[in-house]
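Researcher: Next sequence.
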Amino acid sequence: MEYTKIFDNIILDNNITFLKNIKEVSNDDLLNKEIYSKILDLENSKNNLSDVKEYESDIFKRLDNIEKLTFKRPWNKLSKEQKKIKLLDFLKNHIIHNNKNTDKIKKMILNDFDKNKLNSVKKINYDIFSSQIVKIVNFEYDKNTQEYSYCK
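Model: Next structure:
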């Protein structure tokens, strides 16, 4: 099996050499262009796709790393879309959904965000290293009444 591969490579090299010699002798520009094109095709056919090096990591892992790095910036440097993603993530993780006023509080916070009231670092405590919102100012949970409060 290996001998056929070796013979095929020898034949291919001979064809390329033959075409290069014809190109040197020929005076016709159109013919030279065609010969050059054929030489390139034959040389490219020598390179198997299996010989092409693969990346060590998966493309999805690298994209995930890029996404993580985009959130490792201060709150005021994040884009509006990035802030909204992190804000929704915070609300999903920190609000108990069985509560009485959860929908009202969520609407109030998102409404303030849409009005650009939560863009400053003073209103949102954001941890750069974990890429998470730690606290929203004036957003609290009262354990006695089991309700959330959010004052503007």
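Model: The first helix runs from residue 2 to 25. The radius of gyration is 32 Å.
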